[in-house]
Structures are given as C-alpha cells and as structure tokens.
Design a protein that fits this description.
This protein has about 150 residues and is of the alpha/beta class. Helices cover about 35% and strands about 20% of the residues. The protein contains five helices and five strands. The chain starts with a helix and ends with a helix.
Length: about 150
C-alpha cells in the first residue's frame, strides 16, 4: 500500500511540474518563425525556442533571472528569440555572452501573431510538431533550467 501511495505521489508531482504538451498557437508561432526569421516548418527537426521579451523594462528582475538561467544552460538545439531589444539595453552584455543561437525581433513583431507570448516562453519542436512548451513565470525558471539541462 505504501508503494502505491508513493508511486501515485511521484506521478502527481511529475504531472504538476512537467511541461505542457498542447500548444494551441503552433500554427501562428510557426508562421511567425517563417515570416520574421525565415525558418521553415520543415526545418524544425529538434529545435527549442526560448522567447524572451526584453522590451518591458530596463531593469526587470525577471529578464535578468531568465538571462542568468540561459547563461548556465548547455548550448544545444536552443535558440533564444529576444523580443524588443533596444539599442541601449542594460542587458546587451549578458545577451552577447549567451552561447546559444540568438534571433532578434527588435520590432516586437511576435505580437502581430497569436502566440500568447506575454512572459518568456519555451517551445520544443520535434519533426515540425510541438512536443513540450512552458509559459515561464518567475517561479518556473528553475524548473525550465532543469528541463533544459536534461534534454
């Protein structure tokens, strides 16, 4: 009986901390990737995109927290999309030092598409399909860090 309770507790905890599987804005997000960054859906074999709005403020702790986590993650198939980066951003140095591929959306064009991006977002594609995604609130940053380092 203890084994069943322990197993169900683990299953419940895993379900609560796992990334979501169904991203209902996939079509619009892939259209954004194609229109703005010239990335075709057929090129999405095993890619992760970390969409990071940096246009909200110059000293946001949230942006700093996300950039610190990205600096510590393994460079893999991760591409960081920086939204609304201003020329004089205080984050320029941190961004320059990221080891991941970076795409810039200085015009914040992502907001012209229905993508639900208002906070940072991590989307994982395999064979042109979204298999995982996170809407990243500040409390989920450590969870996303663990996910990225275990992929």
């Amino acid at each position: 009986m203890k084994g069943v309770l322990l197993w169900s507790s683990c299953l419940f905890m895993t379900a609560c901390t796992s990334p979501q599987k169904k991203y209902k804005y996939t079509k619009q997000f892939t259209r954004y990737l194609t229109d703005i960054h010239n990335i075709k859906t057929t090129d999405l074999k095993n890619n992760m995109f970390y969409v990071l709005p940096v246009n909200e403020c110059n000293t946001c702790l949230s942006t700093k927290l996300n950039l610190n986590i990205l600096a510590k993650t393994k460079p893999t198939n991760l591409t960081v999309i920086l939204i609304g980066l201003e020329e004089e951003s205080v984050f320029k140095h941190q961004i320059k030092n990221l080891k991941h591929k970076k795409l810039f959306d200085n015009e914040s064009s992502i907001y012209d598409y229905q993508t639900s991006v208002s906070k940072p977002l991590l989307i994982h594609f395999v064979n042109s399909e979204v298999i995982n995604f996170f809407n990243i609130s500040d409390t989920k940053v450590p969870e996303v860090y663990n996910f990225l380092n275990n992929e």
